[in-house]
Design a protein that fits this description.
Order of helices and strands: HHEEEHHEHEHEHEHEHEEHHHHEHEEEHH
Distance between the termini: 15 Å
CATH topology of the largest domain: Aspartate Aminotransferase, domain 2
Largest sheet: 7 strands, mixed
CATH architecture of the largest domain: 3-Layer(aba) Sandwich
Number of strands: 14
Helix content: 40-55%
Low-confidence stretches: 439-447
CATH superfamily of the largest domain: Type I PLP-dependent aspartate aminotransferase-like (Major domain)
Number of domains: 2
Shape: globular
Strand content: 5-15%
């Protein structure tokens, strides 16, 4: 039993969400940030603000970290996105060292000017071949790729039709490009068809970009890509699929759900990130023609007006692709899936529910924000580092603890994590009930 029941938690720290402060009022742009900070700091002072943490020694399976107040913690790490455990791979580290010796650490230019390196040019070709596409554009981050592909292609009279759970970068790109944004129910292609039918009944002249993900990171599920691409062809629309979370780590050959569903070379546009599997920052957009590539290079601002990937980033990503395609990569994917299956099985045995299909993302259901915050508060003391997810990343009332599995997690790492979660949730449920008793003061609650 942990010691948290000894402290009184103000109810205000267990309620509310960031939605409450998204549109603050007042003429002073700086002063109106105070309301959010007051609420945030109340949570922070009560150990209920688990965001902006920093690792001390990298995303290892067991790591040291600190919160944004400097409080230290150590535990088994299910909070990092390093699905194949490549960030500490000896070959990756050696490639980085050799590249620094040869090229330094900075590309010192936009890709539109002289920011490219031999490694980034080779990386573009590698990704195109890997996905059976013709061309690739690199971006400084995965977020920039998602934002940039929509803002680069869509104009104000065009339409964006997207799965309502699409990532922030895709939604922000759509908001920046056009007011004609249409959200369809998650994974509901019939709903998408109805939207496309209504658009084309009124507008046969302008473009439509349909947006989805290969693997949705909060619900761990995937769309029927063939049906969606066929739908786009029927309505003269263009499909974009974000493969940030499945590329490299799912499927026998690492091609993610596009490969599993036999859609290699058949999707109009693919975008993705290197930060989940490929041991680096950065992102890409893969397309079928040189014309699309060149247009994005010069009309997609995050590509044109951002510094290019550093030579170290490009070289290490290239090396990561080599590993992904090798027998070693297949072994890492097998070990990852073994760990995923073990975690899900043990969670079920412990009476804990989770979302979606088997993937490196195992989100454990909590429900109310108050319960999830109390669970999250206990995890570091009990020896687990995992991420609390609440609004705006997920709908209100659907808070969860997001477990991110790595190939190098051991059987003990998994069993220890499940034991911690079970204990933390049981204690948090008791404490949450105590906070709902308004007639009791802090001293009575402790008693």
């Amino acid at each position: 039993m942990s010691n948290f029941n000894n402290a009184y938690i103000p109810p205000a720290a267990l309620t509310g969400s960031m939605r409450d402060f998204r549109v603050p009022g007042g003429a002073d742009l700086l002063e109106r940030t105070e309301g959010f900070f007051k609420w945030q700091d109340l949570r922070r002072q009560n150990g209920l603000w688990p965001f902006s943490r920093a690792t001390e020694d990298g995303p290892n399976t067991i790591c040291h970290a600190q919160d944004d107040s400097g409080n230290k913690m150590r535990g088994v790490n299910f909070a990092s996105q390093d699905y194949l455990s490549l960030s500490s791979h000896s070959g990756i580290k050696e490639t980085a060292k050799q590249t620094i010796e040869r090229c330094g650490v900075h590309s010192a230019g936009s890709p539109a000017l002289v920011g490219n390196t031999s490694s980034s040019v080779a990386l573009e070709r590698k990704i195109a071949e890997f996905l059976k596409m013709e061309e690739v554009v690199l971006y400084p981050t995965g977020w920039a790729a998602g934002f940039g592909v929509i803002k680069g292609l869509v104009r104000s009279a065009d339409h964006v039709v997207m799965d309502m759970l699409s990532h922030s970068c895709l939604q922000e790109g759509a908001n920046a490009a056009t007011n004609n944004i249409h959200l369809f129910r998650h994974l509901d292609n019939d709903y998408c068809r109805n939207i496309l039918t209504k658009i084309r009944s009124k507008d046969k002249e302008n473009g439509i970009l349909v947006v989805t993900e290969g693997l949705f990171s909060m619900d761990s599920d995937t769309p029927d890509l063939l049906a969606l691409q066929t739908l786009c062809h029927e309505f003269n629309a263009t499909l974009v699929v974000d493969v940030a979370h499945d590329l490299g780590n799912l499927g026998r050959d690492g091609r993610g759900h596009i490969g599993v569903q036999d859609m290699l070379g058949k999707i109009d546009i693919i975008m993705g990130s290197f930060s989940k599997t490929f041991a680096s920052n950065g992102g890409f957009v893969a397309c079928k023609t040189r014309a699309v590539k060149e247009y994005l290079r010069f009309y997609s601002a995050p590509a044109t007006f951002s510094n290019a990937l550093s030579p170290v980033q490009a070289a290490t990503i290239l090396k990561a692709f080599d590993i992904v395609e090798s027998a070693e990569g297949r072994g890492l994917r097998l070990q990852l899936m073994t760990n995923i299956t073990a975690l899900r099985k043990q969670l079920t045995a412990a009476g804990l529910e989770y979302y979606g299909d088997p993937s490196a993302i195992v989100c454990v259901k909590m429900g109310s924000e108050g319960l999830a915050r109390l669970v999250s508060k206990r995890l570091p003391e009990l020896g687990l580092i995992a991420n609390l997810v609440e609004f705006p990343a997920v709908p209100k009332g659907q808070a969860r603890i997001r477990m991110q599995v790595m190939a190098n997690h051991s059987e003990n790492n998994i069993s220890d994590a499940v034991a911690v979660l079970r204990t933390a949730k049981a204690e948090a449920e008791i404490e949450l009930e105590m906070t709902k008793q308004p007639t009791l003061g802090p001293a009575q609650r402790v008693a």
